Protein backbone atom coordinates (compact mmCIF):
# COMPACT_ATOMS: atom_id res chain seq x y z
CA UNK A 1 0.00 0.00 0.00
CA UNK A 2 2.77 2.43 0.84
CA UNK A 3 4.68 1.59 -2.32
CA UNK A 4 1.66 2.34 -4.46
CA UNK A 5 1.13 5.68 -2.69
CA UNK A 6 4.81 6.58 -3.08
CA UNK A 7 4.73 5.75 -6.77
CA UNK A 8 1.72 8.01 -7.38
CA UNK A 9 3.44 10.90 -5.56
CA UNK A 10 6.56 10.56 -7.69
CA UNK A 11 4.51 10.53 -10.86
CA UNK A 12 2.86 13.81 -9.87
CA UNK A 13 6.21 15.55 -9.12
CA UNK A 14 7.96 14.41 -12.31
CA UNK A 15 6.99 16.31 -15.48
CA UNK A 16 4.82 14.21 -17.65
CA UNK A 17 5.98 13.67 -21.14
CA UNK A 18 2.42 13.34 -22.26
CA UNK A 19 1.58 17.05 -21.60
CA UNK A 20 2.28 19.23 -24.62
CA UNK A 21 4.48 22.31 -24.06
CA UNK A 22 2.72 25.63 -23.61
CA UNK A 23 4.63 27.34 -26.43
CA UNK A 24 5.08 25.45 -29.63
CA UNK A 25 8.30 26.04 -31.57
CA UNK A 26 8.09 28.78 -34.24
CA UNK A 27 7.57 27.40 -37.68
CA UNK A 28 8.30 29.43 -40.77
CA UNK A 29 5.16 29.76 -42.86
CA UNK A 30 5.59 30.26 -46.53
CA UNK A 31 3.64 33.32 -47.71
CA UNK A 32 0.91 32.69 -50.17
CA UNK A 33 0.66 34.56 -53.41
CA UNK A 34 -1.38 37.83 -53.40
CA UNK A 35 -4.13 38.45 -55.90
CA UNK A 36 -3.04 41.24 -58.21
CA UNK A 37 -5.65 43.87 -59.19
CA UNK A 38 -5.74 46.17 -62.15
CA UNK A 39 -4.22 49.63 -61.50
CA UNK A 40 -6.66 52.49 -60.91
CA UNK A 41 -6.72 54.83 -63.85
CA UNK A 42 -7.85 58.37 -63.12
CA UNK A 43 -10.35 59.75 -65.63
CA UNK A 44 -8.90 62.37 -67.88
CA UNK A 45 -10.96 65.54 -68.20
CA UNK A 46 -12.05 65.72 -71.78
CA UNK A 47 -12.82 69.21 -73.03
CA UNK A 48 -16.49 69.58 -73.80
CA UNK A 49 -17.83 71.71 -76.58
CA UNK A 50 -20.11 73.63 -74.24
CA UNK A 51 -17.35 74.23 -71.70
CA UNK A 52 -14.80 76.18 -73.64
CA UNK A 53 -12.02 77.44 -71.34
CA UNK A 54 -11.65 80.73 -73.17
CA UNK A 55 -14.89 81.55 -74.96
CA UNK A 56 -14.49 83.38 -78.20
CA UNK A 57 -16.78 84.17 -81.07
CA UNK A 58 -16.42 80.65 -82.47
CA UNK A 59 -16.75 78.79 -79.16
CA UNK A 60 -19.68 78.49 -76.82
CA UNK A 61 -19.54 80.19 -73.44
CA UNK A 62 -19.07 77.91 -70.38
CA UNK A 63 -22.23 76.57 -68.81
CA UNK A 64 -21.37 78.08 -65.43
CA UNK A 65 -21.07 81.55 -66.95
CA UNK A 66 -23.91 81.35 -69.40
CA UNK A 67 -25.85 84.58 -69.70
CA UNK A 68 -29.36 84.60 -68.31
CA UNK A 69 -30.42 86.80 -71.23
CA UNK A 70 -28.95 85.65 -74.54
CA UNK A 71 -29.90 89.02 -75.99
CA UNK A 72 -29.21 92.28 -74.21
CA UNK A 73 -32.28 93.59 -72.37
CA UNK A 74 -34.02 96.45 -74.08
CA UNK A 75 -32.99 99.88 -72.94
CA UNK A 76 -35.68 102.00 -71.27
CA UNK A 77 -37.45 104.47 -73.45
CA UNK A 78 -35.75 107.80 -72.96
CA UNK A 79 -38.75 109.84 -74.04
CA UNK A 80 -41.38 107.83 -72.12
CA UNK A 81 -42.36 110.86 -70.05
CA UNK A 82 -42.90 112.94 -73.18
CA UNK A 83 -45.08 110.25 -74.73
CA UNK A 84 -47.10 109.15 -71.70
CA UNK A 85 -47.44 112.37 -69.70
CA UNK A 86 -50.07 113.85 -72.10
CA UNK A 87 -52.07 110.61 -71.84
CA UNK A 88 -51.89 110.75 -68.06
CA UNK A 89 -52.98 114.36 -67.99
CA UNK A 90 -55.88 113.73 -70.40
CA UNK A 91 -57.53 111.06 -68.25
CA UNK A 92 -59.82 112.31 -65.47
CA UNK A 93 -59.85 111.10 -61.89
CA UNK A 94 -56.25 111.65 -60.91
CA UNK A 95 -54.91 110.43 -57.58
CA UNK A 96 -51.72 111.33 -55.80
CA UNK A 97 -49.66 110.09 -52.86
CA UNK A 98 -48.47 113.19 -51.10
CA UNK A 99 -46.08 113.36 -48.16
CA UNK A 100 -46.69 115.81 -45.33
CA UNK A 101 -44.00 115.84 -42.63
CA UNK A 102 -43.02 112.31 -43.63
CA UNK A 103 -46.56 110.86 -43.56
CA UNK A 104 -47.90 109.55 -46.91
CA UNK A 105 -51.52 110.17 -47.89
CA UNK A 106 -53.27 108.72 -50.96
CA UNK A 107 -55.87 111.32 -51.91
CA UNK A 108 -57.93 112.75 -54.74
CA UNK A 109 -59.27 116.20 -55.33
CA UNK A 110 -61.90 117.03 -52.72
CA UNK A 111 -60.66 114.58 -50.04
CA UNK A 112 -60.07 115.65 -46.47
CA UNK A 113 -56.96 114.82 -44.47
CA UNK A 114 -56.75 114.72 -40.69
CA UNK A 115 -53.13 115.18 -39.74
CA UNK A 116 -52.03 113.33 -36.56
CA UNK A 117 -50.62 116.60 -35.19
CA UNK A 118 -51.32 120.31 -35.12
CA UNK A 119 -49.49 122.04 -37.94
CA UNK A 120 -47.78 125.12 -36.57
CA UNK A 121 -48.04 128.52 -38.22
CA UNK A 122 -51.27 127.96 -40.19
CA UNK A 123 -54.72 129.47 -39.86
CA UNK A 124 -58.11 128.36 -41.21
CA UNK A 125 -58.44 129.42 -44.83
CA UNK A 126 -54.75 129.24 -45.68
CA UNK A 127 -53.84 127.49 -48.95
CA UNK A 128 -50.79 125.22 -48.87
CA UNK A 129 -48.81 124.04 -51.87
CA UNK A 130 -47.95 120.33 -51.48
CA UNK A 131 -44.87 119.67 -53.58
CA UNK A 132 -43.74 116.25 -52.36
CA UNK A 133 -45.38 113.28 -54.03
CA UNK A 134 -44.17 109.75 -54.69
CA UNK A 135 -46.96 108.50 -57.01
CA UNK A 136 -49.26 110.23 -59.48
CA UNK A 137 -51.71 108.23 -61.53
CA UNK A 138 -55.02 107.83 -63.24
CA UNK A 139 -57.04 104.81 -64.29
CA UNK A 140 -54.55 103.48 -66.86
CA UNK A 141 -51.28 105.30 -66.16
CA UNK A 142 -49.05 105.69 -63.12
CA UNK A 143 -45.96 107.81 -62.62
CA UNK A 144 -43.63 106.83 -59.80
CA UNK A 145 -40.87 108.99 -58.42
CA UNK A 146 -37.39 108.02 -57.30
CA UNK A 147 -38.12 108.81 -54.56
CA UNK A 148 -40.29 111.85 -55.41
CA UNK A 149 -41.89 113.07 -58.59
CA UNK A 150 -40.62 116.33 -60.02
CA UNK A 151 -42.76 119.11 -58.59
CA UNK A 152 -42.98 120.77 -62.01
CA UNK A 153 -45.15 117.90 -63.30
CA UNK A 154 -48.10 118.43 -60.95
CA UNK A 155 -49.76 121.11 -58.88
CA UNK A 156 -51.48 120.10 -55.65
CA UNK A 157 -52.97 122.58 -53.21
CA UNK A 158 -54.69 122.03 -49.87
CA UNK A 159 -56.88 124.40 -47.87
CA UNK A 160 -56.69 124.49 -44.08
CA UNK A 161 -60.18 123.91 -42.72
CA UNK A 162 -59.34 124.27 -39.05
CA UNK A 163 -58.24 122.40 -35.98
CA UNK A 164 -60.02 119.60 -34.17
CA UNK A 165 -59.39 118.49 -30.61
CA UNK A 166 -60.17 115.19 -28.98
CA UNK A 167 -62.08 114.91 -25.66
CA UNK A 168 -60.09 115.58 -22.52
CA UNK A 169 -58.44 112.41 -21.24
CA UNK A 170 -57.43 112.08 -17.58
CA UNK A 171 -55.15 109.28 -16.46
CA UNK A 172 -54.38 108.65 -12.81
CA UNK A 173 -50.76 107.70 -12.23
CA UNK A 174 -49.54 106.11 -9.02
CA UNK A 175 -46.31 104.64 -7.69
CA UNK A 176 -45.60 101.58 -5.58
CA UNK A 177 -45.97 101.89 -1.83
CA UNK A 178 -46.91 105.57 -2.13
CA UNK A 179 -50.28 107.16 -1.45
CA UNK A 180 -49.66 110.06 -3.75
CA UNK A 181 -51.69 110.11 -6.96
CA UNK A 182 -51.08 112.30 -9.97
CA UNK A 183 -53.46 113.14 -12.79
CA UNK A 184 -52.10 113.36 -16.32
CA UNK A 185 -54.38 115.33 -18.62
CA UNK A 186 -54.10 115.21 -22.43
CA UNK A 187 -56.12 116.82 -25.16
CA UNK A 188 -54.49 116.43 -28.57
CA UNK A 189 -55.29 118.75 -31.44
CA UNK A 190 -55.29 117.87 -35.13
CA UNK A 191 -55.19 119.98 -38.29
CA UNK A 192 -57.79 119.29 -40.99
CA UNK A 193 -56.87 119.85 -44.67
CA UNK A 194 -58.93 119.55 -47.83
CA UNK A 195 -57.38 118.89 -51.26
CA UNK A 196 -58.73 121.82 -53.20
CA UNK A 197 -56.72 121.49 -56.42
CA UNK A 198 -54.91 118.68 -58.24
CA UNK A 199 -53.67 119.27 -61.78
CA UNK A 200 -51.26 117.38 -64.01
CA UNK A 201 -49.34 119.74 -66.25
CA UNK A 202 -48.58 119.26 -69.93
CA UNK A 203 -45.18 119.54 -71.55
CA UNK A 204 -45.86 123.08 -72.74
CA UNK A 205 -46.70 124.24 -69.22
CA UNK A 206 -43.60 122.52 -67.81
CA UNK A 207 -41.33 124.14 -70.38
CA UNK A 208 -42.94 127.54 -69.82
CA UNK A 209 -42.50 127.32 -66.03
CA UNK A 210 -38.89 126.21 -66.30
UniProtKB/TrEMBL annotation:
GO cellular component terms listed in the entry, alphabetical order: mitochondrial large ribosomal subunit
A Pfam entry, by short name: Ribosomal_L21p
InterPro entries assigned: bL21-like, bL21-like_sf
Recorded GO MF terms: structural constituent of ribosome
PANTHER family (alphabetical): 50S RIBOSOMAL PROTEIN L21, LARGE RIBOSOMAL SUBUNIT PROTEIN BL21M
Family of the protein in this entry: Belongs to the bacterial ribosomal protein bL21 family.
Identification of the protein by name: Large ribosomal subunit protein bL21m
